[in-house]
Amino acid sequence: MRILALVAVALFAVGCNSYVTPGRGADMSTFGFNREALTDASVQKKLELKPLASFPATLAVVRVQESGYSSYRGHGYGEGKYSIVTARDSEVETDATFNRIARMPQVTAIAMLNRMVLPPNLTTDLQLREAAATLHADIVLIYTVDSVFRSNDALKPLSAVTLGLSPNVGVHVTSTASAVLMDTRNGYVYAVAEATSKKGQLANAWTDEDAVDQSRRAAEAESLQKLVAEIERTWTNVVAQYTPARKAG
């Protein structure tokens, strides 16, 4: 009977999917507990940076994208590790968006960086800070928008969206807008912000390229609006932290 029972268990196991146990947790002593050095030189250098901007401040604003960036309505300027989008898409980056930034407390003005003050070779934030210095801006607001298309039957990002697919194939675009507030003089990072927007569409509703691109622009516009709201909240904290308190009387 015991042998028959073991055979039955074995047959049952063969007929079911196997459960693979997850891996073990990481050895937490790896993360700083066994260190002999006090501080890594590169980390120490960043920690020693101090804010140098004075408030109220002028902001230089610039949009960066990957090197060789190209969209349905424009392309990036410059070569190297990133490119600059100098031509604004009015449906995505509206005047109202930048007016909100200009109206933030302790902001005297905003200046958009363009190819007149930017070199063609872009490798680090130094090129942006030098361009901002040319415009006498105290802080650089650097932002980017990352848009990814995925179908509901594919996990990997789509490199191309096939038009007129069957109505049961949905395609989703996710746009994530990210920003950093950086001191023009030494690259000190005051704050970072990020926001995401998602839009879905049945692929058979897209009959031309402009229809697809309209969905992208809608997602990007929404993510930027959310990002500006995050920047406004973050900027309030920056001003409170770095503006010297006025003495009474």
Structural features, described:
The protein contains five helices and ten strands, in the order ααβββββαββαβββα. The protein is of the alpha/beta class and 249 residues long. The chain has one domain (56-242): Double Stranded RNA Binding Domain. Strands 1, 5, 6, 8, 9 and 10 form a six-stranded mixed beta sheet that branches. Strands 2-3 form a two-stranded antiparallel sheet. The protein has a two-stranded parallel ribbon with strand order 4-7. A hairpin with a 5-residue loop joins strand 9 (170-183) and strand 10 (189-202).
Outline of this structure?
The protein has 249 residues and is of the alpha/beta class. It is built from five helices and ten strands. It has one domain (56-242): Double Stranded RNA Binding Domain, CATH 3.30.160.
